[in-house]
Amino acid sequence: MIFENIDYLKAINLFGLNVSTYKPALLRCIINFSRKGEVNIDWGDLSEEFFNIYYDRITKRNLPQLFQYGRISKVERIIKKYQIGKINKDRALSEISDECFNDVVPRFHTIGMNSKIAKDFFYEFNFGKNIILKDSFNSLVEISYEEIIQDTECRWSTLEAAFKKNQSDYNHDLVNNIRDVYLQSGYGRTNITSTKPFLLPFQGDVCFYCGTVMGDSAVDHVLPREVLCHDEIWNLVVAHSHCNGQKLDYVVGPHFIEKLIVRNENIMGSNHPWKQKIFQQLGKTPQKRKENLKKHYENVKIVKGNRFWQGDESYNPDKDPLYKKLISILNGYK
Ligand SMILES: [Zn+2]
């Protein structure tokens, strides 16, 4: 069977993993370059075009660009940071260049699950350097420009509509406002693993999520970092790697928030300098700290929805050993 170039492009456009809109966006970019006669596309120019296309689209239409409920894509986050003045254009472009092409550029030619049939058909690339468009693509842009633009736009809108439907109970304006507030004060990832020995005693030396003896462990953000954009102590706990792996960035059930409040008060009872940070960030009195932590929890629920992760089935919060520890009693747990 011989297929035309346009058949390949239509198949590529139509059958992707569909978890984001990166593929139509990349297609739109390379169409624009080919149209201008630029067939050797510098990575920086690609990043700028990608940014411009998304910026234009998001500011005009404000539709979700990712399927997953309660999450935003990397490109949306970068554009938001730019919009609220957290980063400048150069920084935004360098983040796009570093973070947004890892999947889409190598996988652009994949049709459904098949990565072989159209491999390198329309371009070749040197990751981080350039994309070289082939004649198969350039001739298509020359002959069928209107049609492929229309197909791309149609695919992109279809994905947005599907993502919006998946998030239909969403208050987009409110969610955007909350995200912006956290992005504004947030920062990039720090080394949180080093906090492990500090954190463990204050949570009774057991896993925060299942209450059993620690083994292979990881430091976890109780409220998802994806929303809060920080690594502050009041939100960090130590958990088994497997408990951490179950929790991912789901919203935890309210009993874990109650527990986090107790854990934080244990830190407040210590003389460690880090207690000052909790003091500044959550408040001067136990009551204030509790209220503020709950406020963050409410914000996260608005952003990510009320789909809780309650912990392992065998975990019973009423029997959690932390509540019976001397440190918890001493620090005000009743
Ligand atoms: Zn555990």
Topology:
Elements: H1 5-14, H2 22-35, E1 40-42, H3 43-61, H4 74-83, H5 89-99, H6 104-107, E2 123-126, E3 130-133, H7 135-166, H8 172-185, H9 196-202, E4 217-221, H10 225-228, E5 236-240, H11 241-247, E6 251-252, H12 254-268, H13 275-282, H14 286-304, E7 308-309, H15 326-330
The structure holds zinc ion (ZN).
The site of zinc ion (ZN) has 7 residues, from strand 5.
Q: How many beta-strand runs?
A: 7
Q: What fraction of the residues are assigned to beta strands by DSSP?
A: 5-15%
pLDDT under 50 segments (min length 5)?
none
Oligomer: single chain
Identify the notable features of this structure and list them briefly.
334 residues; mainly alpha; three-stranded antiparallel β-sheet; 15 helices; binds zinc ion
Characterization of this structure:
The chain is mainly alpha-helical. The chain has 2 domains: 164 residues; 146 residues, no CATH class. Helix content is 54%, strand content 7%. It contains 15 helices and 7 strands. Strands 1-3-2 form a 3-stranded antiparallel beta sheet. Strands 4-5 form a two-stranded antiparallel ribbon. A two-stranded parallel ribbon has the order 6-7. Helix 2 runs antiparallel to helix 7, helix 3 crosses helix 5 and helix 13 crosses helix 14. The protein is elongated and about 75 Å long. The mean pLDDT is 92. The site of zinc ion has 7 residues, from strand 5.
